[in-house]
Specification:
The complex is a heterodimer of chains A (321) and B (433).
Chain A (H helix, E strand, L loop, with lengths): L4 H20 L2 H12 L6 H20 L3 H27 L6 H36 L5 H22 L8 H28 L18 H28 L4 H5 L2 H4 L1 H26 L2 H25 L1 H4 L2
Chain B lengths: L3 H19 L3 H29 L1 E7 L3 E3 L4 E9 L8 E5 L5 E3 L4 E4 L7 E3 L2 E5 L3 E13 L6 E15 L3 H12 L5 E6 L5 E8 L11 H6 L6 E10 L2 E5 L8 E2 L2 E2 H19 L3 E7 L2 E6 L2 H8 L10 H9 L7 E7 L12 H5 L3 E7 L12 H27 L3 E5 L4 H10 L1 H6 L1
Parallel strand pairs in B: 2-10, 14-17, 14-19, 19-20, 20-21
Antiparallel strand pairs in B: 1-3, 3-7, 3-8, 4-6, 4-9, 5-8, 9-10, 11-13, 12-13, 15-16, 17-18
Chain lengths: 321, 433
């Protein structure tokens, strides 16, 4: 793994939207709830332990690669928080303590909720590890690294939204139960909203919780940095790597083709932003709807890529071949 | 043309765009839009460069027009952008013929060549195989910075280089052989000092010339009996080397073909002949015609460097022609190949016997010219089976020849030269026998 300072800078810039959201949405406070619950020393502490363990298991999986032990650890740590209550229930059914089963049902619900909440809360951390591995190990597609930011952002927002309502002071496990319940409700609401938009039926009443941090003005800066970093990452990932494959001598002499053609890369990004702005304004002027203007501009850009890409086949006379 | 990488990039960018559009946050839509537009801009720049690619020309400078195997040659192809628009990024790859090993890579990624300007690429090669070699063209691959599209154009740019066989090995081997005193000569005892070397002193016979009496030896002897100085007459042996460049003589690895080994042997023998005084002739076939060459090693190298496998090569004609080139009782070395199931009849060599030459045939073992170094046991086993079959075939062939009085031996890629030298240096003894 070749981790250069430039790549670290790019990664931080690309991760900035969800890193800032983690701070704004009090995400680290929620992680504290998991740690506190772990030290409460109750049955549900096993769920939180496994949730925390899943992060370490995933780090090992990423650094050492796939293997029976690594994969087994991931499966174990990710399934126990959700499967543990069911396992205990089956165990009680098969044991001589069947009469204790009604008493277990009430605590099983808590176990489920805490397990779900712990798992949902560590998922963004797993996403960060995955994102870092995608960027540093240069795995998957270049667009995949950009997409990972969106996924992680969504996961952090999801956790932040679940924790944004009033939470009673006291035991951390109680707070986790409430957040777990909200995560379930929000999941159903999200599913409902997707189905409603697909089928075309009116949506039922939404979640009463609000998330003011989603409208924070800081997001403009983080998003801008993310946009520029994503564009530069595209060059780093595709241009630099391709030049390396082709054995570019400039790599040895002048620090790489990106450095040697920094001015033209800057020009390309500047031109891209200029074209976008122009098109968005033109379409906005015509339709008076920003969403349509942005989406139409994207469709036009994609069409340009496809059309010009096939142009050298479609119009051989133009290229003289 | 869209590349595989390009298809993957466009697919993933398309998914990014769709997800961003249907996502919950409009900011992500804008970001996806910028990424997609950057792709579009690069595509437009690529399309612009395509026109410049059409007007691209190339030239090439070689540090030498003739070289010997093992030399180092500088090659400087120059790509000129004839249009006003810039060209790039491009991957320039010079069409180096297969007979060369590249010491410095013959390709480079060039970020951009400005309009009406040129770019010089420098690399070095080492000739490995003899012959006339043509550098036909320079391959210019235009691409975008992301490698999504690719357009390849072979820009014509011809250069010719002659590669002669290496002379170093001949010189080195020559020194070793002469030092050991192994020389291809016929010796006969004579008492005439002219053109001969002193070999010892013997008793005086009444018919001996008084001028050959060794006075000092006579004075040292107790009875003062006359002694006679004896001289040895050395007669250098003439050599004819027949190269049976059949249609399969081009088999083998680059620079290590049967022909390469045969020409190398011819050059070394030429060196030895030059030092020992005997004449040396090489006979070979070119386009169905028998040709011969003789002279100094360098002259021979200039004649033999572009020898090629000849489907019309006729061993009988080569031997017959070669037999006429030197006086009788010369050494005729015929190097031929006869891979299974081909056969060469004994009658092919009758020309050598008719001229009263001493003929020795070196038969090349074809399988040794295809070294397979692989850890794969199945492959190694297959190689051994083929080699064993080939050697058995040649043994039977040699046995048939032996019945007609032809001496021959099997030579492989490594020992051809050594065996040829052995025959050459022992020729005097063998001819006398």
């Amino acid at each position: 793994m070749k981790v250069s300072p430039a790549l670290i800078t790019l990664f931080v810039a690309m991760a900035l939207p969800y890193l800032s959201l983690m701070i704004l949405s009090n995400y680290f406070g929620y992680l504290g709830l998991i740690v506190n619950t772990l030290f409460e020393g109750r049955l549900y502490s096993i769920s939180t332990l496994m949730a925390i363990g899943s992060v370490f298991a995933y780090v090992i999986r990423v650094s050492k690669g796939s293997g029976a032990l690594q994969d087994g650890l991931i499966i174990l740590t990710l399934t126990v928080p959700v499967v543990l209550p069911s396992l205990l229930m089956v165990g009680l059914l098969l044991s001589p303590f069947q009469d204790q089963l009604p008493k277990y049902f009430s605590s099983a619900a808590d176990l489920y909720l805490i397990g779900i909440a712990s798992l949902a809360m560590v998922l963004p951390l797993l996403g960060v590890v995955n994102h870092a591995s995608v960027v540093f190990m240069q795995k998957g597609s270049a667009a995949g690294a950009v997409l990972m930011t969106m996924v992680n952002y969504g996961l952090v927002a999801f956790v932040g939204l679940a924790g944004s309502g009033p939470i009673p002071a006291g035991l951390s496990s109680r707070a986790l139960q409430i957040i777990g319940a909200r995560i379930l409700v929000d999941s159903f609401f999200t599913l409902q909203s997707i189905l409603a938009s697909v089928i075309g039926i009116p949506l039922a009443a939404g979640t009463p919780r609000s998330a003011p941090w989603l409208a924070s003005p800081d997001r403009i800066w983080t998003a801008t940095l993310f946009a520029v970093a994503s564009a530069v990452y595209f060059y780093y990932r595709l241009y630099q790597k391709r030049a390396e494959e082709e054995g570019a001598r400039a790599l040895k002499k002048e620090g790489g083709p990106i450095v040697t053609s920094l001015h033209s890369i800057g020009f390309a990004i500047f031109l891209a932003v200029l074209i976008d702005t122009g098109l968005i304004f033109v379409i906005l002027f015509a339709t008076q709807q920003l969403q349509i203007a942005v989406e139409l501009t994207m469709v036009l850009a994609m069409a340009t890529v496809i059309l010009l890409g096939f142009a050298d086949r479609l119009m051989p006379w133009w290229f003289g071949r | 043309m869209l590349t595989k990488r390009g298809i993957a990039v466009l697919n993933s960018t398309f998914i990014l765009g769709v997800l961003a559009s249907f996502g919950f946050d409009p900011l992500f839509t804008t970001i996806a839009l910028i990424v997609v537009t950057v792709l579009a801009v690069e595509t437009m720049l690529y399309a612009k460069s395509l026109r410049a690619l059409r007007r691209t020309t190339a030239s090439r400078k070689l540090s030498a027009e003739t070289a010997f195997v093992g030399d180092s040659i500088s090659v400087d192809p120059e790509i000129e952008n004839g249009s006003r628009a810039s060209l790039g990024p491009i991957v320039v790859k010079d069409g180096t013929p297969q007979g060369f090993k590249t010491i410095i890579p013959n390709q480079d990624w060039i970020v951009s060549i400005d309009g009406r300007s040129s770019h010089l690429l420098h690399y070095e090669i080492e000739p490995q195989q003899i012959g006339d070699w043509n550098f036909e063209s320079v391959e210019v691959t235009l691409t975008d910075r992301f490698g999504i599209f690719k357009a390849v154009r072979d820009v014509s740019c011809k250069s010719l280089i002659k590669v002669y066989p290496s002379m170093k090995k001949g010189e080195e081997l020559l020194k070793g052989r002469i030092h050991l005193g192994m020389r291809p000569i016929r010796r006969s005892a004579v008492t005439t000092p002219q053109g001969s070397e002193f070999s010892g002193i013997r008793e005086y016979y009444p018919t001996d010339d008084v001028r050959t009496i060794a006075w000092k030896a006579m004075a040292r002897s107790p009875a003062h009996e006359p002694k006679t100085k004896q001289h040895e007459n050395e007669q250098a042996i003439n050599t004819i080397f027949v190269i049976g460049n059949s249609k399969r003589s081009g088999e083998g690895l680059v620079g290590d073909r049967k022909l390469d080994r045969l020409v190398e042997t011819a050059i070394v023998l030429a060196y030895l002949s030059l030092k020992t005084g005997g004449s040396f002739h090489v006979v070979y076939s070119r386009n169905g015609r028998v040709e011969s060459a003789s002279g100094r090693p360098l002259t021979l190298a200039a004649k033999l460097y572009n020898i090629e496998p000849d489907p019309h090569a006729n061993i009988e004609a080569l031997v017959r022609h070669g037999a006429k080139l030197a006086s009788s009782r010369s050494l005729m070395l015929a190097a031929v190949d006869s891979p299974f199931p081909q056969k060469i009849e004994s009658s092919a060599y009758k020309g050598a016997f008719a001229a009263n030459h001493f003929l020795h045939v070196l038969v090349l073992e074809t399988s040794s010219f295809f070294p397979i170094e692989s850890p794969d046991k199945t492959l190694a086993l297959a190689r051994d089976v083929i080699a064993a079959r080939e050697i058995e075939h040649l043994r039977r062939l040699i046995a048939v020849w032996a019945e007609d009085g032809i001496t021959a031996q099997i030579c492989n890629r490594q020992d051809l030269l050594a065996k040829a030298l052995e025959v050459f240096t022992n020729a005097g003894v063998m001819i006398e026998a």
